[in-house]
Amino acid sequence: MRSIWNGAISFGLVSIPIKLVNATENRSISFRQIHTEDGGRIRYRKVCELDGEEVSSEEIGKAYEEADGTMIPITDEDLAQLPLPTAKTIEIVAFVPASQIDPLQIDTAYYLSANGVPAAKPYTLLREALKRSDRVAIAKFALRGRERLGMLRVVDDVIAMHGLLWPDEIRSPEGVAPDTSVTVRDAELDLADALMDTLGEVDIETLHDDYRAAVEEMIAAKAEGAEVAAPKEEKPGGQVIDLMAALEGSVRAAREARGEGEPEASVHELPGRKKTAARAAPKESGGKKSTAKSSGTAKKAAPARKSTSKTAASGTKAADKKTTAKKSTAKKASPRKRAS
User: Fold this and answer.
1) Separation of alpha carbons 264 and 255, rounded Å
2) What is the pLDDT of residue 303?
3) Is 42 left (phi over 0), alpha (psi -120 to 50) or beta?
């Protein structure tokens, strides 16, 4: 890979000659501007506003524009005279845990390559020290005419450097959060957790740019003179009114996409709706008394059954007394029959 900057890492009194290499590349498809009538290229020409003449790159300089429009010319010599100790040095200023770096600050990534055989030993020393300390190095360096902030960390067996934005370049999120006060219920959080668990983890290496692939296919088809099939129009999603239903549907769809069964997300019953559920339960379960209220009714009905059994028992005793009385009357009547 071609280096874009040569210098050294300043690690205390240790100097490590290195080369800076881009760690990323832009894979986006770029387009040219054309005249739609004849397909001719549209080009930009640099023209002086005062005389209207086109100016070549060699005649173009830099200037700072004041608020009133006044231009203050700035030459390369002016900038070269400024004290910039990091012009050719990546100066490490501290070692901190990676958790202290706000991801909002992370910018362009670079690889640092040891420049020459003598640099191999101190380069390896710094790499292994970063590994063992489980920290990252904060450094200052100069690139493309300005001083920048950087973070050094180990990637495999290479020291990588991420350009960092200065703290005052991070805008405050004031006014971005919702203005209205919103209460999130436990049941909604449970379903959100279930959805996150269902989606699970992903191998970043398997992700790719679907849009770029579609654009490349379209360009190839047009180059061959083939007709480009219009994409199927997707129905726009309706406005989400029931958040719970949307979460449940999301969990179900995610599980189906992963080839799993129905979601087993548990939903906590809201305190304000328990009584309603208790009343509706007997109708849904075919009249079975399963709620606390039904069990209370059953307890109250128990004494009634007891009193009924007592009545039945007393009725039986009375019937027995009548039978005994009839038998005794029959015994008394039999001697009279014999006498006649």
Assistant:
1) 10
2) 45
3) beta
Closest to 88 measured CA to CA, from 161, 162, 15, 163: 15
Q: What is the pLDDT of residue 47?
A: 94
Contact at 8 Å (CB) between 7 and 20?
A: yes
Residue 188 tokens, joined? 């909604």
First to last CA, the chain: 144
Contact between 108 and 68 (Cβ < 8 Å): no
Q: Which of 70, 148, 77 is nearest to 109 (CA)?
A: 148
Q: Are 310 and 318 in contact (CB under 8 A)?
A: no
Q: Could you give the CA distance from residue 324 to residue 327 in angstroms, rounded to a whole number?
A: 5
Mean pLDDT (the chain) is 78
Interaxial angle between packed helices 243-257 and 186-199, expressed in degrees from 0 to 180 and rounded to the nearest 10: 20
Confidence of residue 129 (pLDDT cuts 50, 70, 90): very high
C-beta of residue 160 within 8 angstroms of C-beta of residue 152: yes
The residue written with tokens 């983890």 in the block is 201
SS (H, E, C) the chain: CCEEEEEEEEECCEEEEEEEEECCCCCCCCCCCECCCCCCECCCCCECCCCCCECCHHHCCEEEECCCCCEEEECHHHHHCCCCCCCCEEEEEEEECHHHCCHHHEEEEEEEEECCHHHHHHHHHHHHHHHHHCCEEEEEEEECCEEEEEEEEEECCEEEEEEECCHHHCCCCCCCCCCCCCCCCHHHHHHHHHHHHHHCCCCHHHCCCHHHHHHHHHHHHHHCCCCCCCCCCCCCCCCCCCHHHHHHHHHHHHHHHCCCCCCCCCCCCCHHHHHHHHHHHHHHCCCCCCCHHHHHHHHHHHHHHHHHHHHHHHHHHHHHHHHHHHHHHHHHHHHHHHHC
Tell me, what amino acid is at 158?
V
pTM (predicted TM-score): 0.62
Q: Tell me the sheet residues that pair with 331.
A: none
